[in-house]
Design brief:
heterodimer; A: mainly beta; five-stranded mixed beta sheet; 1 helix; 5 strands; B: alpha/beta; five-stranded parallel beta sheet; 12 strands; about 40% helix; globular
Chain lengths: ~60, ~260
Amino acid sequence: MKILVNGAWRELKAGELSGVLEELGYGEAIVTTAVNGEFVARGLRLHTPLSDGDRVEVLAPMQGG
Amino acid sequence: MLKLYQETLRSRLLLGTARYPSPALLTEAVRAAAAEVVTVSLRRESAGERAGQGFWSIIRELGVRVLPNTAGCHSVKEAVTTAHMGREVFGTTWVKLEVIGEDDTLQPDVFGLTEAARILCAEGFEVFPYTTEDLVVAERLLAAGCRVLMPWGAPIGSGRGLNNLFALRALRAHFPEVPLVIDAGLGVPSHAAQALELGFDAVLVNTAIAQARDPVRMASAFARAVEAGWNARESGPIEARDFAAPSTPVVGTAFRP
C-alpha cells in the first residue's frame, strides 16, 4: 500500500504503524508519531492499522528556539 | 531563585538551541551561560540520517531541563498535537506553546494560543505561552491555567530588544506575582539587563547568541547582563529626575562667602 511518510509517498508492506516504522528502518530510534494529523502514542503503534493513502509523521528531537 | 511551575532555578537566562554553527558551540554556550533550561523542538526524522538522535544525546549529556516548543504551528490542532508528541519524546509536561498567526512578524495568534492553552492546561501540561504584551490576552492565558507568561520583546530573531516598553511595564505592574519571561527579539546583553531591571523574571535568548560571531563569549555576556539586571532590580534603583543633584556634598564647599 502507498503511505505518505513525512511528506514522501512510500510503497510499504506492513499493515500497522509499528511494522511500518520497522520496515522503514527506524528500529530503536527515539521518535514520536502521528497518523492523519492525530498523535499515536508509542504503546498504540502496534494496534494502529494503516490503509492506503494514510499520512504518517515520524518526528524526532531537533534544535528549537 | 526563579520558580517556573514546580522547578526552582538559579539561572534567569533560558536558551534556545537552534541556529548554532555547530553542536560543540551549542554545548559550550549552554555551559558558558550556566543555563538550566533550553528549548527544543520536533522535526521530521529520516530513518537514514537520524539527525535527531544525535542532537537528543547532546542535550541529555548537558543535564539541563528541556522546554519543548510548538514552533511552526499555525493552528490549535497542530499545536496541541505537537505538544502531545513533545511530551512523549522529551518526557516532560512543560511546553512552550507557540501558535503563529502572521508569517512576517511571527506574531502569535493570540486567539488560537488561548484556546490551545486551555486544552493543554486541562490535560495537565505546564504551559509557557509565547504571547504578545497584551494585558487582556495575558488575563485569558492565566484564566486558562497558565502560571508563567512569555511575552515577546520584539519579533523572533529581530534583535530589536524591548519594542514596547510602555506595554511591557504595564504587563509587569498588572501581574506582579506571575513569572514573566521575555521571549524573543533580544539582540544584545543590554536588552536582557533592561528586561530584568524592569522587573521581568527571566529572558529566553536564541538567535542573538547562536548567530553571534563568538556564541560562547556572547552567552557569557548575556548571563552577566541578566545577573546585573536582576541585582540592579533587587538593589532598588534610584528614580530618574529632570535636574542635576550634586553627588559631592555641598556643605563646606571652599571659596564661598
